[in-house]
Amino acid sequence: MNIAVLASGNGSNFEAIARACRKGRLGKVVVKVLITDKEHSYVRTRAKKFGIKDIFIDPARFSSRRAFEKEIVKVIEKDNIELIVLAGFMRILTPYFVRRFKNRIINIHPALLPVFRGTHAIERAYKRGVKVSGVTVHFVDEEVDHGPIILQEKLAMKEGEGLESFEQRVHRLEHKIYPEAIRLFCERKLKAEKRTVRIVNR
Ligand code: GRF
């Protein structure tokens, strides 16, 4: 089963997925292509290291978000992609794109949705003094960080823990649960029913 990863930055989640695949932990999943909107993103270096095709699509070349997304659609259709994995893709997708791939786009968010939606979620949770935070993988719908939740895992704040350490632990957790969510999708074990996702035969 072919998947595409869309990312804009560092790409540590991309790498975790690529590595899980290489180790055979994701069954028949193939990371077919990385698509990025940032020419100089580090995630491209990671893709090259894994020998995964990486495509840079420059948003500045297009007159609208929809035109930019149509270019992404072309790549996705050419490569027979079944699942689109957002991993730090710093663009809000339009309803056109989201509807076209309903329940075939997933995202990871570094907090326990529905709290701390949006950017800088780790820092905001930390500064808010939460005792427990975590990570969420969800299907993408037309609202930001809002679609049906697939997996969540929690993380307790340690007494006196610094932001950096907390951040690292959140990312480590992401790298564990994102490949797991992809595996479940690809084994067709996720059943989305309105806002609920049932996991069958886990
Ligand atoms: C992750 O924290 C993810 O939850 C958020 O963006 C960040 C991407 O990190 N959506 P990386 O580029 O995968 O290292």
Q: What class do helices, strands and sheet pairing give?
A: alpha/beta
Shape: globular
Strand order of the largest sheet: 3-2-1-4-5-6-7
Number of helices: 6
Small-molecule components bound: 5-O-phosphono-beta-D-ribofuranosylamine
Count the E strands. 9
Radius of gyration: 16 Å
What percent of residues are in strands?
Answer: 15-25%
Largest sheet report: 7 strands, mixed
Which helices and strands, and how do they pair?
Elements: E1 2-7, H1 12-22, E2 30-36, H2 42-50, E3 53-56, H3 65-78, E4 83-86, H4 95-100, E5 105-109, H5 121-127, E6 132-139, E7 149-156, H6 163-186, E8 190-193, E9 196-199
Parallel strand pairs: 1-2, 1-4, 2-3, 4-5
Antiparallel strand pairs: 5-6, 6-7, 8-9
5-O-phosphono-beta-D-ribofuranosylamine binds next to helix 1 and strand 5.
Structural account:
- The chain has six helices and nine strands.
- The protein is globular and about 50 Å long.
- It is an alpha/beta fold.
- The mean pLDDT is 97.
- It has helices at 12-22, 42-50, 65-78, 95-100, 121-127, 163-186, and strands at residues 2-7, 30-36, 53-56, 83-86, 105-109, 132-139, 149-156, 190-193, 196-199.
- Helix 1 (12-22) packs parallel to helix 2 and helix 1 crosses helix 6.
- The strands form two sheets. The chain has a seven-stranded mixed sheet.
- The two termini are 19 Å apart.
- The relative contact order is 0.16.
- Strand 8 and strand 9 (196-199) form a beta hairpin.
- The site of 5-O-phosphono-beta-D-ribofuranosylamine has 13 residues, from helix 1 and strand 5.
